Amino acid sequence: MIAFPRLQTILLVIALIITLHPAPAASAAKPAPATCDIYFFPSATADKYMCRTTAVDSKGKHQNLKCTLSKCTIKAGSWESFAFENCLLYADNDKTKQPVVGAKPETVKAVQYHVIVDPKETYLQVFGRSNGKWYKCPVDPKKPDAINSQRAICTDCAVN
Description:
Order of helices and strands: HEEEEEEEEEEEEE
Number of strands: 13
Structural class: mainly beta
Low-confidence stretches: none
Helix content: 10-25%
Number of domains: 1
Strand order of the largest sheet: 8-7-11-10-9-2-3-4-13
Strand content: 35-45%
Largest sheet: 9 strands, antiparallel
């Protein structure tokens, strides 16, 4: 026979409360960094960029995220200091046209980029920060460490 049934019941209730109480938010796992490998462009909100990844959600759709720009890096540096190389200016600033014939390749600090993969080639459409013009920048899929193969990686994103 139990000598102190009321004490045993109280201790059991305390044990259940401790066991079932949710963990504090501080111990929650941090979300994995998002690699913006489809596009990266400014949103309507200051310091927020739109990021689309090749990772898919439970419905098989690519993840569309809104990320804090200050929490995004590219090639271990800031987005503001990064530049794509060997980029050609689009004729009439029109991405549907080919680059200007005879144009000299340029190094471009970008406002945004879009990755284009078609059967013939992979390239970036890059919007230049200094002049507001569109460029076509080559990507060699066989060289993942090359400058133009780098993508923004963000650690503070929310599903959009």
